[in-house]
């Protein structure tokens, strides 16, 4: 077939694109509400980062013999310290398999709010702990 015999028809033109966009108007949102929504959405990331990173500065505190610094009754041994540091990562490994079905059943918003409750309970346990077992549970 000779290319001169082909009849090419344009599929879309720029004019059609502009006219279709003219009918759509974006809503104007309040900047304050958008800022608050952005902060709230990022709180989960901050909470996870805090949970993953708190063991690094707390390791020397839990190793201290000074009872005014160390809140625990006993000094954790090396094995207990490694469990303290790794349980959060192990929880992060298991959590998606629980959070996925929960998000399907209850929705993403309720699942995130529910996970926030676990973070709060964990931090309260960390603040009030006096034994290594409580620390591991937190």
Kindly describe this structure.
There is one protein chain. With 138 residues, this protein is mostly helical. It has one domain. The protein has 6 helices and no strands. The longest helix is centred in the middle third of the chain and has 29 residues, at 78-106. It is elongated.
Task: Set down the secondary structure blueprint.
Elements: H1 14-22, H2 31-53, H3 55-63, H4 78-106, H5 108-128, H6 132-137
Helix pairs in contact: 4-5
Can you describe this structure in just a few lines?
With 138 residues, the protein is mainly alpha-helical. It is built from six helices and no strands. Its main location: membrane.
Number of domains: 1
Low-confidence stretches: none
Rg, Cα atoms, Å: 27 Å
Shape: elongated
Proportion of residues in β-strands = under 5%
How many DSSP helices?
6
What is the straight-line distance between the termini? 75 Å
Features:
elongated, mainly alpha
């Amino acid at each position: 077939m000779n290319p001169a015999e082909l009849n090419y028809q344009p599929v879309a033109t720029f004019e059609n694109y502009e006219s279709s966009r003219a009918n759509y108007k974006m809503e104007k949102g309040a900047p304050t509400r958008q800022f608050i929504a952005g902060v709230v959405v990022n709180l989960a990331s901050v909470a996870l980062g805090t949970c993953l990173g708190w063991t690094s500065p707390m390791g020397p505190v839990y190793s201290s013999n000074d009872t005014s610094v160390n809140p625990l009754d006993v000094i954790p041994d090396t094995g207990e310290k490694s469990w303290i540091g790794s349980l959060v990562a192990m929880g992060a490994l298991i959590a998606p398999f629980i959070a996925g079905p929960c998000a399907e059943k209850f929705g993403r918003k309720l699942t995130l709010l529910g996970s926030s409750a676990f973070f709060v309970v964990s931090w309260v346990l960390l603040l009030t702990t006096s034994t290594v077992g409580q620390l591991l549970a937190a």
